[in-house]
Amino acid sequence: MSSTTPRKTPKTRTAPRAKAKASNRNAPAAKAAQQSQPVATRAPKVAPRAPQTNASLLTRREAAVPRGVASAAPVFASHAENAELWDVEGNRYIDFAGGIAVLNTGHRHPKVVEAAKAQEDHYTHTSFQVVPYEPYVALAERLNALAPGAHPKKTLLVTTGAEAVENAVKIARVATGRTGVIAFSGSYHGRTLLTLGMTGKIAPYKKNVGPFPADVFRAPFPSVRDGITVADALTGLQNLFLTDAQPDRIAAIIIEPVLGEGGYIPVPFEMMQALREICDTHGILLIADEIQAGFGRTGSWFAVEHSGVVPDLITVAKSMAGGYPIAGVIGRADIMDSVEPGGLGGTYGGNPVACAAALAAIDAIETEGLLPRSAAIGETMRARFAEIGGRTSPFRMWDIRGLGAMLAIEFVTDFETERPDTALTKSVVAHALKRGLILLSCGMHGNALRIMVPLTASDAIIEEGLAIFEAALADAVAELGV
Ligand SMILES: Cc1ncc(COP(=O)(O)O)c(C=O)c1O
Q1: By the 8 A CB rule, do 357 and 116 touch?
Q2: pLDDT at residue number 50
Q3: In sequence order, what E strands does 215-312 have?
Q4: How large is the average pLDDT for residues 80-107?
Q5: Which of 188, 201, 441 to mutate to test the pocket of ligand 1 (most atoms within 8 A of CB)?
């Protein structure tokens, strides 16, 4: 029973915490919390729509949308603001899922919405490959400056995380003249065929879908939870080099600095450092997949920064643009330039509205002090989860882990066997939704809850969400008779 607590305090590049208080969005709620008064939540003004019910929409959805596109919540969104969402029946929810780690700056951040609207008044699409535009270049410049490493960098923009990962592999192959890719068990890199081949979890993503592209190898992820130490993981990697993956045929090793879908498990810093050395020894490129962990989730711009390691390529998406679909590959300029003109891109890649949104979201993270805010949220929530676990479900909340506000709590049937308790986790999620809190699970056994609350959420909203979580956990414990 141990926790993967990071050894270093998060590094940040922004102004100290005081700046976070300057955020208009946090200020009223924080003040209200200090005065111990109930916090008024304000629904945004929205034009009325024809009345709908969740049940009728669910019926239409089931008839029109394949069941493979699963939804965690059986309710339909009407509107949302910062860390709150309302369904079509007017029920209010606190959002701890943030659209799967997309909303570090919250729903409809005013600066993001304003920037997107302003861009829409100019043009919404030209295709960068036909007529280029400044927001793409500005975002590339911004990302090149933010990414770790003093070397010259260049950025490719695409639309989804999986597309970014696919392109990172393409670039690595062209740059090295090698084909092999090593990914880790428990990793998640997307749902396209190559990225599924790299993803290290079968159900539900890979089930019955293979065969997957060749030359993708799997190394063990260092997980204290599964008894795999850094030394074990490195031995596994060396064995892979001896048995299946010829090191001088390997183009890239890709790793999530904090395992996302796989359970919010931070990669120990010595593992990241060892991977850097191994890559340097064999001429392999190191790719950090920051799609879920980037843009403040862990208290720094990129989670890999905590380890001091500088990767060759970084894949980004999700919270980069506060809710708009855009992704990218940031990398060493010489590596990024190895692909011939025309070899990279896509019709919609780096859409101008999404670029404008991304620039505004990055500004918001910087000016509202969201990196230190992430670290503070992480500390508060760790402490509160420990308290709640002790009160509500001793011997069940097995681990509270993560980096900054990228936190997960894991449930087990008992401390002796440490058997994952998927049923309890599902029940907590369902009861939380009924009580007005959106939660999402993760982990190889779906027995961890991950926290992706907007970093712009006020202390009062976070507390309200935690109180709902505690009540939902009590409901689940009562329901399952545990
Ligand atoms: C680490 C990581 N890589 C890649 C992806 C794929 O991104 P997308 O769903 O935008 O294709 C995800 C999505 O959750 C992710 O968390």
Answers
A1: yes
A2: 77
A3: 216-219, 250-255, 258-259, 265-266, 285-289
A4: 98
A5: 188
Q: Average the pLDDT over 404-431 and give the result.
A: 94
| pTM, to two decimals | 0.91
Q: Which atom of ligand 1 is nearest to the CA of 256?
A: 1
Residues of the chain with CATH 3.40.640.10: 113-367
CB atoms within 10 A of CB 299: 28
Q: Supply the pLDDT for residue 276.
A: 98
* Among 255, 291, 298, 316, residue to substitute to test ligand 1 (most atoms within 8 Å of Cβ): 291
C-beta 366 within 6 A of ligand 1 = no
Q: Which residues pair with 451 in a beta bridge?
A: 407
Q: Alpha helices of 147-286 — where are they, by DSSP H?
A: 161-176, 193-198, 230-243, 269-282
Residue nearest to atom 10 of ligand 1 (CA): 161
* Mutation probe of ligand 1 site: the residue of 318, 319, 441 with most atoms within 8 A of C-beta: 318
- The ligand 1 atom nearest the CA atom of 327: 10
What SS3 class is residue 124? coil
Ligand 1 centroid vs 253 CA: distance in angstroms? 17
Q: Sorting pLDDT into bands at 50, 70 and 90, what band is 1?
A: very low
Per the CB < 8 A criterion, the answer to whether 275 and 255 are in contact is: yes
The domain defined by 17-105+369-480 folds into Aspartate Aminotransferase, domain 1 (3.90.1150)
CATH (one of 1.10.10.10, 3.40.640.10, 3.40.50.10840, 3.40.50.2300) for 113-367: 3.40.640.10
For ligand 1, whether the C-beta of 475 sits within 6 Å is: no
Q: How many residues does the chain have?
A: 482
Of 257, 251, 264, 270, the C-alpha closest to 182 is 251
- Is the beta carbon of 289 within 6 A of some atom in ligand 1? yes
Query: What token pair was written down for 183?
Result: 């990914």
As annotated, the residues of the chain forming the CATH 3.90.1150.10 domain(s) are 17-105+369-480
39: burial class by Cβ within 10 Å (0-12, 13-18, 19+)?
middle
Edge-to-edge order in the sheet of strand 180-184: 153-158, 327-332, 313-316, 285-289, 250-255, 180-184, 216-219
User: Ligand 1 centroid to 162 CA: how many Å?
Assistant: 6
Are the CB atoms for 471 and 290 separated by under 8 Å?
no
CA–CA separation, 86 and 75 (whole Å): 9
Q: Is residue 166 in contact with ligand 1, taking CB distance under 6 Å? A: no
Q: Is the CB of 292 under 6 A from ligand 1?
A: yes
